[in-house]
Each structure stands twice: as C-alpha cells, then as structure tokens.
Amino acid sequence: MTAPILQLQAVSKEFGGIHALNTVSFALKEGQIVAVIGPNGAGKTTLINVITGVHRVSSGQVTFRGEDVTGQRPFQAARRGLARTFQIVQPFPRMSVLENVAAGALFGGAHARMSEAMEAAREQLAFTGLTAFTDRPASALTLAGRKRLELAKSLAMRPQLLMLDEVNSGLNSSEIDGALALIRSIAGRGITILIIEHVMKVIFSLAERVLVLHHGELIADGSPGEIAKDQRVIEAYLGEKFARRSPPPFPPPHAGQG
Ligand SMILES: Nc1ncnc2c1ncn2[C@@H]1O[C@H](COP(=O)(O)OP(=O)(O)O)[C@@H](O)[C@H]1O
Ligand SMILES: [Mg+2]
C-alpha cells in the first residue's frame, strides 16, 4: 500500500470555547477526489485552514507525504504543493486577471522569476477559459469568473493537493457543469483533490469518497452511496437539506457519470 499524501491524526481546533474541529483523523490517497460535506459551521473551512497553516491546530498532527507539517505557515504549505481556493473570492480588484494569477504563481514558489510566473499564469488562464479576460481588471469578472480565477491562481502554484472551498456555490446549473468538467481535468493531471461542496450533483459525479463533518466531528466517511444512506448524516445534514424536497433527494449512486 502506498503512503497517504495527507494524513490528519486527532486534529482539534478551538476558537475560544468553540470546538471547530474535534479530534479529526483521516488519510487521503494520492489521486483521490474526496468531498467534505456538513452543515454551515461544521468546521469545513477550518479544516482547510489548519491543513494550509492559516490556523494553528490546538492539538493533533498533520502529515504531508510522510513529513510532519503541523504548524507550517501558508507560504510553506504552498511551496510544498498544498494549494487551496477561498470560499469568499477576493481578487485584487484593480490588478489585471493575469496579474492576480501570476501573484498566486509567485506565492507558490514554483516560479522564481516574474516572466515565468506570467507564463504559468497565461497557461492556467487558458486552461480555465479566462484568456479573453487576461488584461481586464479582476473586478470585470462575474462570480463564476472569479471562481475560475481562484482555480487558475491555485493551479499556477503547481499543487499536488488542491483543496476547493465551495467553488460552485452561487453558480447556475450550466456554470456548475463547466466547473465539473474543469475539476475532472484537474484530477486527470494526477492532482489529489479535497472538495468542500454542497451541490449534490457535484458530489455524486466527482467524489469517490465523502467525509461528513458535524460540530467539528467527523461523523461519517464512505462512498457517496454509503453516505446517502447513513442515518447520522441524514439527521445532521441531508435531512435538513432535503426535508422539503420531492422527488427523492438522491440520484442513485453514480447517476450522471458518463
Ligand atoms: N477565525 C475564527 N475565529 C473564531 N471562530 C471561528 C473562526 N473560524 C471559524 N470559526 C468558528 O468555527 C466553527 C466552524 O467554522 P467553519 O470552519 O467556517 O465552518 P464551515 O466552513 O463548515 O461552515 C464555527 O462555529 C465558526 O464560527
Ligand atoms: Mg466554510
């Protein structure tokens, strides 16, 4: 068995009296696409924040490729190949779309010189379909465009593990289809993906495994089909999300996969 790319061992994070994460343990295999779901306030964003060093853990250990990276700083995480997108997208509004992505490339440290960073940025703008906006200010982008900009930025860091924080929230159905295709081709490059997601269609068509957080605890870990039937998950999250929906909330497992 190959060693996991990422491992969390009993990771806890407290803010004042709040247990944002409570002894969370799991390991990710290289090349997996894993979804993280849970109600608002469950600790999903905090999970990415402790993995990337935005927040220090209160206790526990984070290991990346066998190396203890607990307590690393965000720039060190980026340089190791741990990239993330932000739930609230905040590009530098007056900088061009190209400059925003180049800034990401420089932060990730994969490109020492500005000319290389610009080159990497152009490549990722093409990949994410933003070439037409290269020289426009980031403020000219729609929400869907800003989400793509976040993706381009994190890809310009040449990640090995990419963590996506609600990249589909607020997007319409055809924009989500576009994002799905993009995420699939990112995975096709061999990049491991941890995706925080509320859109069930995305979870079912992308993720081979789903982690469920509730009040900072990992209450379930399984395939989408297993998670959909899990009583604790239904009570904690899916029931609330789908209680008033009909027809039945779930497509059968693997529906929609072409
Ligand atoms: N920087 C912070 N300071 C204080 N409390 C925080 C901070 N970040 C998150 N929290 C709290 O931790 C809990 C988990 O938040 P978060 O990880 O953002 O949840 P999710 O992303 O699942 O909606 C919430 O109760 C939230 O208010
Ligand atoms: Mg969040």
Strand and helix layout:
Layout: E1 6-15, E2 18-28, E3 33-37, H1 44-51, E4 59-64, E5 67-68, H2 74-80, E6 82-84, H3 97-108, H4 114-127, H5 143-155, E7 161-165, H6 173-188, E8 192-196, H7 200-206, E9 209-214, E10 217-222, H8 224-229, H9 231-242
Parallel strand pairs: 3-8, 3-9, 6-7, 7-8
Antiparallel strand pairs: 1-2, 1-4, 4-5, 9-10
The chain binds adenosine-5'-diphosphate (ADP) and magnesium ion.
Please provide a brief summary of the model.
Helices cover 37% and strands 23% of the residues. It has 258 residues and is α/β, with parallel strands linked by helices.
3D structure, described in words:
The protein is an alpha/beta fold. The chain has two domains: 1-81 and 161-258, 3-Layer(aba) Sandwich (Rossmann fold), CATH 3.40.50.300; 90-158. Helices cover 37% and strands 23% of the residues. It has nine helices and ten strands. It has helices at residues 44-51, 74-80, 97-108, 114-127, 143-155, 173-188, 200-206, 224-229, 231-242, and strands at 6-15, 18-28, 33-37, 59-64, 67-68, 82-84, 161-165, 192-196, 209-214, 217-222. The strands form two sheets. It has a six-stranded mixed beta sheet with strand order 6-7-8-3-9-10, with helices on both faces. A hairpin with a 2-residue loop joins strand 1 (6-15) and strand 2 (18-28). Helix 3 crosses helix 4 (114-127). Mean pLDDT is 90; it is low at 252-258. The structure holds adenosine-5'-diphosphate and magnesium ion. Adenosine-5'-diphosphate is lined by residues 15, 18, 20, 38, 40-46.
